[in-house]
Amino acid sequence: MRPPSPGRTARRRRARSRPSAALAALALLLPAAGCCVTPPDADVILDLGYRTPEQTFFTFQVGMRGDLPRLEYACLSSDFRGRNGLSQLAYREFREQWMDENPWLRKGVAEAAVEARVDLADGVVRLDCSSYGHAFQVLLVREDFEQAWSGDRLVHDELIEEFSRGLIEEPRDDGGREVYAGTSLPPEAGGAPLTEFRIGREWKIDDVRQADPSEGPPES
Question: What is the pLDDT of residues 80-132, one digit of tens each?
Fold first, then answer.
């Protein structure tokens, strides 16, 4: 890995907990498979991820259908977790109260169909959904991040201000590109050798809310 250019803009960082796309989703599912109502099959597991708003919502639905709080939690944005004071453990209690206060959540979200996608701003998308005649909206935000592992130990996991500032691209004479990224590890990472470094962009759920009844259900 080549170091980033010295003039790169400083990045905003926040501690976070992030799984590693579909393979990490599989790791999330396996420990809880015994308590699933309907354990997802292999094809469903391979479709899990956070690369698009629709894929993230599908992953959240799998979590709800299988009663998998860890998978649901992984779909939530850092701001959602912060606003509600959530850790992975606290989410288990939060979700019960959340669903008790919003009865349509448990069954409605799990069986919902996405009727429309609305791009509200750069990095903000709303999915208009319907289920059993009820309409609701899922707001998703884009999160850029960097992550480093040493074996099975996560030594660095932070949000970055902008994906393009963490990934450096240089054109080659033959029309290709040189692509590289770099980061600054915190002291607590120690001197352990890195076995994996990721920089990525994912979509996470920032809010789920019932649509205004006066608007009526989204048209199919």
Answer: 999 999 999 999 999 999 988 888 887 788 889 999 999 999 999 999 999 88
- 49-80 pLDDT, tens digit each: 999 999 999 999 999 988 899 999 999 999 99
Reported in sequence order, the residue ranges of the chain that DSSP labels E, i.e. its strands, are: 113-121, 124-131, 134-150, 153-159, 167-171, 177-181, 196-210
Distance, first Cα to last Cα, the chain: 48
Tracing tokens 């579909």 back to the chain, one arrives at 22
- Cα–Cα distance between 13 and 110 in angstroms, integer? 33
Structural tokens at position 74 = 């992984």
- Per the listing, tokens 């450096």 go with 168
Integer Cα distance of 211 and 24 in angstroms: 32
| Euclidean distance between CA atoms 177 and 179, whole angstroms | 6
User: Cβ neighbours of residue 41 under 8 Å, at least 6 residues apart?
Assistant: none
How far CA 47 is from CA of 56, 58, 96, 178, 203, in Å, comes to 10, 9, 26, 30, 15
**Nearest partner of 122 among 193, 203, 32, 50, judged by Cα:** 203
Amino acid at 162: E
